[in-house]
Amino acid sequence: SYVLTQPPSVSVAPGQTATITCGGNNIGAKSVHWYQQRPGQAPVLVVYGDSKRPSGIPERFSGSNSGNTATLTISRVEAGDEADYYCHVWDTSSGHSAVFGSGTQVTVL
Amino acid sequence: QVQLVQSGAEVKKPGASVKISCRTSGYTFSAYAIHWVRQAPGPGLEWLGWINAGNGVTAYSQKFQGRVTFTRDTSARIVYMELSGLRSEDTAVYFCARDFGGYCTADTCSNFDHWGQGALVTVSA
Fold first, then answer.
1. Nearest CB partner across the interface for B106, out of A33, A45, A96
2. How many angstroms separate the Cα of A88 from the Cα of each of A5, A43, B83, B93?
3. Sequence-ordered list of residues with C-beta below 8 angstroms from that of A32, at least 6 positions apart, any chain
4. Residue A45 is nearest to which of B37, B111, B117, comparing CB atoms?
5. Per-residue pLDDT tens digits of chain B, which is 125 residues long
6. Which of chain B's residues have a Cβ under 8 Å away from the Cβ of A100?
7. Which residues from chain B sit within 8 angstroms of residue A90, using beta carbons?
């Protein structure tokens, strides 16, 4: 089955840029979606189709995808960005299944 | 606005079944698929499968095939997830989530654009 690898944690100072990676075999050929999950809450879609933002998501959230790595970038980080972030793709290698990364906890210092 | 509201927490004994509901509003119910995703204690999300709310077509993760069943009540705009043969490892928060792209097919789904608030299922003797 397809495996997505994320760093367990990322720490960033307010106002700086957080970069969260999602590694997978030739992930650049897939469409990657990103979710933010604050403690005790449901996930929220923040980037879809590699780099598109749903309505209501700040421009500070951006995404890219190439080769074996997809990236979620949060610019001008705020305290409210502290959360877990998950990448998501569809795996077609054995049927058609949703695969999530293990999640990255973003801590705002 | 789009809303998905789930039923409340459940406590079950090993071997029992649990049925969770996901009541929807704010969009054309029959035009979208609903997915089920769970989160065991701690970080990590696990996908269980989907149901097309309009025609009832379903697809299940191989891991849960034979143990999970999705159904829907189109008049009430509710989707249900039933998980049988519960074991302690099934203790988790279960989320329903709408598919952004509408219907799913055997090889095409999209992302999850709206989520329910989650329902905690605790399996304990």
1. A96
2. 11, 12, 24, 18
3. A22, A47, A49, A50, A63, A65, A70, A87, A88, A89
4. B111
5. 999 999 999 999 999 999 999 999 999 999 999 999 999 998 899 999 999 999 999 999 999 999 999 999 999 999 999 999 999 999 999 999 999 988 888 888 999 999 999 999 999 99
6. 44-47
7. 109
